[in-house]
Amino acid sequence: MMVELFIFDLDGTLASSKMPMSADMTSLLARLLQVRKVAVISGGKFELLKMQVMNELEKVDANLSNLHILPVSGMQYYTYDADKGTSQMHVWKALYKKSLTASQEFQAIAALLEVAADLNFLDVPSCGSRIEDRGGQITFSTLEQDAPVQDKEQWDPTGEKQRELAVRVRRHLPDLEVRPGGCTSVDITQIGMNKAYGIRQLCASTGVELDRLFYVGDKFNDEGNDYPILQLGIDYLEVSSLDDTKAFLENTLEKL
Ligand SMILES: [Mg+2]
Predict the structure, then answer these.
(1) 3-state secondary structure (DSSP) of residue 214
(2) How far is the CA of 59 from the centre of ligand 1 (A)?
(3) Backbone φ, ψ for residue 10 (5° rounding)
(4) Tens digit of each residue's pLDDT (9 = 90 or more) over 237-249
(5) d(CA 84, CA 78)
(6) Architecture of domain 5-97+193-255
(7) Which residues have beta carbons under 5 A from ligand 1 (an ion)?
(8) CATH for 102-190, among 1.10.10.10, 3.90.920.10, 3.30.70.100, 3.30.1240.20?
(9) What is the pLDDT of residues 123-163, one digit of tens each?
(10) How far apart are the CA of 43 and the centre of ligand 1, in A?
């Protein structure tokens, strides 16, 4: 079956956490955008995806009309609006944005702080904000959002601390979805608002059927943010490095 739409996770798949895509990756993705639709779905917020992905693709004049951007695990969905001229604010158009209620946000933050304090995670030095409201998603990072990736990996090399936090917070919030996010973070959203939801919206908007999708990500274990993808039954590839993704793109481009 011909793949019409390639979907990529961002952190650990297209770029290092919170870093712009490399020139190599950008050029491979730009080549794919010439011939196929491409979507990027990430737990990060719009501004972060703009910095990591769109700004890099704009530099090489990529075909952005084929690009679909789903920040906050698909709770927001943006496409490129070529008619809107040069005003940056208007070039990327939101098809939708979901949100938590004020009371859900409050409960989520309270549960995160309580459990993190219990686990002594609040004693870990952090010079930035641990809690971020991404619009529809509350994200907690024990080491602040912008901490170096090496520090995050050193603090929690196996992801065990991150999982422990998620499992315990989940017990406090039965009406919300709690899952480990990108690197050392835990994400909280409405139930059912995960990457699978985003991908269904993507299908509805593009008219591409599920069996014409291909997904590439790096965290498919049952606590990872790519795990919900598996319930869709779509074809996918699990990568363990950015080099794996580059090799996949090179092979795919050869065949197209
Ligand atoms: Mg990832």
Answers:
(1) strand
(2) 24
(3) -105, -70
(4) 999 999 999 999 9
(5) 14
(6) 3-Layer(aba) Sandwich (3.40)
(7) 9, 11-12, 218
(8) 3.30.1240.20
(9) 888 777 899 888 888 999 888 767 777 887 888 888 899 89
(10) 8
